[in-house]
Amino acid sequence: MVQPLVIHEVAEARQWVRDAQSAGERVGVVPTMGALHAGHLSLVTAAKRTCDRVVTTIFVNPTQFGPHEDLEKYPRTWDRDLEHLSAAKVDVVFAPSTTTMYPRGDGATSVLPSRVAKRWEGEFRPEHFGGVATIVLKLFQIVPANAAFFGEKDFQQCRVISDMVEDLNLPIELEFVPIRRDDDGLALSSRNAYLSDEERHRALSLSQALRDAAASVAAGERDAGTIQRSVRRTLENAPVDRIDYIAVCAADTLEPVDKLTGNEMVLIAAHVGKTRLIDNTQLRF
Ligand code: AMP
Predict the structure, then answer these.
(1) What pLDDT, on a 0 to 100 scale, did the predictor assign at position 107?
(2) CA triple 181-184-185, angle to 5 deg
(3) Which residue is closest in CA terms to ligand 1's atom 6?
(4) Which residues approach ligand 1 with their CB closer than 6 A?
(5) Residue 245 is inside which H or E element, if any?
(6) Residue 110 class from Cβ within 10 Å (0-12 exposed, 13-18 middle, 19+ buried)?
(7) What is the model's pLDDT at position 2?
(8) Which of 86, 132, 138, 150 has the largest count of CB atoms under 10 Å?
(9) Beta strand pairing status for 173-177 and 242-250?
């Protein structure tokens, strides 16, 4: 199997992309924090569908972790990641060091994300989306691809990035890829590795609650409060150990709604054991 070219330095990454584009090739970029699973690989598949060349970035970005979060113990599985990316025929892996990305350390320039970052994740992880927007803008500058691919698993993140691209006039196309789930319904996540069997069983209540919510809307339910209470009951019955939020909100603004109009989302964040899980579904009709 041909190994992807591994690049650690900024200038080399940028030059590789420029050379490919000069040769008339369309380049896609898939930003990740490694610990790759089939969810990440479905982004690579989407990128390969529309791009001649695919760059995957692997960087565990410290600025998007809060002070008491799991930065230190975040899974790092470099050898296996490289095997996955070889099998997926990725062309380049850009894997910079922390000092390469943040030579100035604290006090460096950063991005203030749009209003869409304020609620939900933003309330529980106040620095998170600023860190995400900043690293994504940096990666777009270093890997100036034609298109970038993100997962709807992190739905609010997709909205933050799409506002940033529009507001800052960034010359890149975005594609958002549906959530990839295990057979039992659990949304794939690098953090699922933290779950014991017993916790994983309780974690299934997130996807179960979302399926029930979508089914109730298909059956005619239009009241956001009713849907939210029913999701809460399912999570509490599992039980999960703590619910951060259950949002029934507009898919574009992420503002909460009272009545559904056909383009809403349910967003969930909940803790099972020491693991924080997020999941979401569309409520379309
Ligand atoms: P992460 O490594 O967790 O930062 O994720 C990198 C990218 O993969 C993000 O755009 C995520 O939204 C996406 N991703 C993570 N899990 C999934 C999943 N289960 N299905 C689809 N995309 C995912």
Answers:
(1) 82
(2) 40
(3) 32
(4) 32-33, 39-40, 42-43, 150-151, 153-154, 177, 179-180, 187-190
(5) strand 242-250
(6) middle
(7) 85
(8) 132
(9) unpaired
